[in-house]
Amino acid sequence: MHITTFDYIVVGAGSAGCVIASRLSENKNVSVCLIEAGGSDKGAMVQMPAGVAASVPYGINSWHYNTVPQKELNNRCGFMPRGKVLGGSSSINAMVYIRGNKKDYDNWAAMGNTGWDYTSLLPYFIKAENNKTFINSPYHGVNGPLHVQELSLPSPVNQLFLKACQEQGVALNDDINAQQQLGARLSQVTQHKGERCSAAKAYLTPNLARKNLTVLTDAQVNKINFCGKSATGVTVAVNKKRYVLNAHKEVILSAGAINSPQLLMLSGVGPADHLKQHNIELVTPLEGVGSNLHDHLTVVPLYKAKYSQGTFGISASGAFNIAKGCVDWFAKREGKLTSNFAESHAFVNLFTDSIVPDVQLEFVIGLVDDHSRKLHYGHGYSIHSSIMHPKSRGTIRLADANPLSAPLIDPNYLSHPDDLQVMLLGLKKTLSIMQSKAFDTIRADMVYPLDINDDAQLIEFIRQTADTEYHPVGTCKMGQDDMAV
Fold first, then answer.
1. E strands, 62-160, where?
2. For the chain, which domains are there?
3. Which of 44, 56, 240, 270 has the most CB within a 10 Å radius?
4. What is the pTM (predicted TM-score) of this model?
């Protein structure tokens, strides 16, 4: 590296970092360095939408973290994959385009975060989006860099899910990113011309030729350097060699809910007693760093299908469809492998008439068991039932002072008793949909038989199988209170 000083250093080329680096480098008079611990996003496992089926369970382009044992989940260690590639988790996720609920943003503003209310944020959603489905909608944009579209080749089995939702009182919703979120719909996805449209694809790739933008891949930041309480740069490891990069203006940390607090603590910013325990020199005591971790916990019942049509699975016909899908995708960027698997969604309110959902249902056209790490012969379908507003809170802590060590991730799932009640009722709603008349033509046996009327059995199923829906947040919380970072 010939240049070691930049105006801005952005740590983490994920969903936020790619946008920040792109926007800052629009100013030709400043220099920007974007640092990513992972590698290029050019491979087929990123660009092919169906590549998600391999990247998540097998750790391709991922940190492949696990949690500490979870007391309320029968002491199981949960799975916590996070993107380690240009685009971050937007390069390994299911590409579903869903914004947060309006009330969530308004609550952020009510906590003292001026400008984070829904009305203030909506223009930025519109500016980012290129969505040709809703051309004249006041909620959507058509000129932004992030391509959002309908599924190219949705499975006909989705219509069974949508009909089953209606049979169980869940109405269809043409646009879950508009006035209200409740209801069921085919997924809109961040894809373009048969490929994934990640944050890197949308914001970084078109601007890589900028002379004032430097992108470092396979470069892990070990520490943020400080002069007093001001960040002056970073220490980064590239090819087992360490370099110091200096920032004239700012160091911007956008490494996600797991790695951002880890890096802050390694750099001396965090809970004083915890840093002392690992002999890390204290720069600033901030108790909120690594605290307040919460996540969407999900439970996934599975049904086998009477026939293979419309679903992914392990069979002779399934293998043929995958082979044909590979030919279609590599030749023309079309076909079955443009699927994101999670092809339909529903937001459901279980308790009140509020427009704020309690659970999210994600219909998957395949058997998803333990993040697809447990495989079953045959075909089927699954529904993720996820709690939307968990009350349980956990932590990110250091295992030691080595930046190469994985942090201790403790979501503390179900530590608040209300969360288990929501999970139970969400699972019952899911089973009622899966057992509806609409699925009679395709439904075979459950992979793990469940009795919708046996609460004890359902609770044990939750404790034995529930895990992350890949949405950890809160560990560097915004706000004005003592736990804000």
1. 65-70, 76-80, 129-131, 146-150
2. 1-95+197-289 (3.50.50.60), 96-189+297-389+415-465 (3.30.560.10)
3. 270
4. 0.95
